[in-house]
């Protein structure tokens, strides 16, 4: 039986608070997400020579909320990268097999990364919305996050110099969802404003 909507909100809030309390490097970007749909359609279709419409639809599910947030602050839209989606797919698959769907260590990656985890199947739009929601803690005037808050997932989404994104999801044995988006060029450069 699926948890009620209020139960999901409580679980999401509890997980979000736990994440916000954890210390993360300045260049790391992580977030938690709400509920939703499918896993891996874009990369699987691309790798298997699948339906171009399915691939485009999965890519659009990630791109639309990214580009809506970017348009809101006047930065150019992102393009979808099959190469980044494939790389993200390999990472989520590894985490699914070896890490129990835990966040991946992205410290050595040449790309920017946002990660999302939900206790149920989360849709791409919900995941990206949770990252964008951190924007309420970001103060552009002095390029800082509110005390005790994180906003690195938001600043990666809207990073002006980032040009492309590729994302992938894995559904864990428990029914949880791990989502990773990779960004090129990476954002969250210490001392620089995202836009």
From TrEMBL:
Alphabetized SUPFAM superfamilies for the sequence: PR-1-like (SSF55797)
UniProt keywords, alphabetically: Signal
Domain of life: Eukaryota
InterPro entries: CAP_dom, CAP_sf, CRISP-related
Signal peptide (residue range): 1-28
Domain spans labelled SCP: 57-191
Protein name: SCP domain-containing protein
Organism: Urochloa decumbens
């Amino acid at each position: 039986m699926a948890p009620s909507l209020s139960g999901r909100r409580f679980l999401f809030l509890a997980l979000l608070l736990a994440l916000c309390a954890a210390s993360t490097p300045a260049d790391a970007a992580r977030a938690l997400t709400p509920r939703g749909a499918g896993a891996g359609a874009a990369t699987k279709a691309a790798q298997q020579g699948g339906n171009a419409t399915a691939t485009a639809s999965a890519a659009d599910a990630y791109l639309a909320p990214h580009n809506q947030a970017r348009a809101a602050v006047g930065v150019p839209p992102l393009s979808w990268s099959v190469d980044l989606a494939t790389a993200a797919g390999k990472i989520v698959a590894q985490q699914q097999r070896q890490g129990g769907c835990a966040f991946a260590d992205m410290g050595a990656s040449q790309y920017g990364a946002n990660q999302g985890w939900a206790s149920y199947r989360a849709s791409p739009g919900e995941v990206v919305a949770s990252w964008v929601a951190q924007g309420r803690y970001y103060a552009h005037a002095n390029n800082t996050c509110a005390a005790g808050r994180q906003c690195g997932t938001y600043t990666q989404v809207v990073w002006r110099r980032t040009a492309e994104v590729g994302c992938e999801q894995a559904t864990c044995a428990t029914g949880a969802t791990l989502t990773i988006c990779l960004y090129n060029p990476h954002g969250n450069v210490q001392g620089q404003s995202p836009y």
